[in-house]
From TrEMBL:
Keywords: Nucleotidyltransferase, Transferase. One of its GO terms (molecular function) is nucleotidyltransferase activity. InterPro entries: G1P_cyt_trans-like, NTP_transferase_dom, Nucleotide-diphossugar_trans. It comes from Nocardia rhizosphaerihabitans. Residues 3-220 form the Nucleotidyl transferase domain. Gene3D superfamilies: Spore Coat Polysaccharide Biosynthesis Protein SpsA, Chain A. This is Glucose-1-phosphate cytidylyltransferase. The keyword Protein biosynthesis does not apply. It comes from the Bacteria.
Amino acid sequence: MKVVLFCGGYGMRMRGGSEDVVPKPMQLVGPRPLLWHVMRYYAHYGHKEFVLCLGYGAEHIKNFFLTYQETASNDFVIRDGQVQLLGTDISDWSITFVDTGVESAIGERLRRVREHLDGDEYFLANYADVLTDAPLDTMIERFHASGAAASMMVVPPQSSFHCVDISETGEVKNIMPVARMPLWENGGYFVLSQEIFDLLPPGGDLIADACDALAGQGRLFGYRHLGFWKPADTFKERAELDDAYRDGARPWMVWESA
């Protein structure tokens, strides 16, 4: 299936200041940007046709692939002055770059790339800033078995904050970490059908408009994942992923274990 990646937002919580113009999907984890890690995950499962929804910082994403250096993540031999690669990342990928507007909501970005999906009945979508070791094949199989029109991966809350149960008089009854509460949050990995476009108004949002409507109809499936899942929504989270990469703790790099 084709993979739609939303990589056009400002990413304000990630940027280090007004001079930091690199978009969030291009922030590095190891020698490669977040976007590459997400794409490599999908490619590992055989999904190598990508549609990039560009907006803010589009030139950084375009230049990365136009000047792609295979040697940054593949072994190679120099013989007689020629570089001979011992592996390749993206030689069999197809990547479509689409300007979907700087201010567009996620749903509008999706609407603007519909023509590039070739009418495929099903496709994948992702925010391009979350890494996971979730078994994508199983996620897709469960979606099809559910008969739903769309699926999202859901994960336990990741917050380190605590919720407080307090009475009207101010007496604290209970304190519980958010992560231990019986809640699930959107994990950012979607399997979608073409029906999603019927629920997206111009300028609309994927979650608030389309997914919420399907949930009300009982036609939105949630795949619960209890394994590794890590967002890179802030500078701190991205730095934690980078540290994990350098320490060799890379559960999201499922292609390495293979």
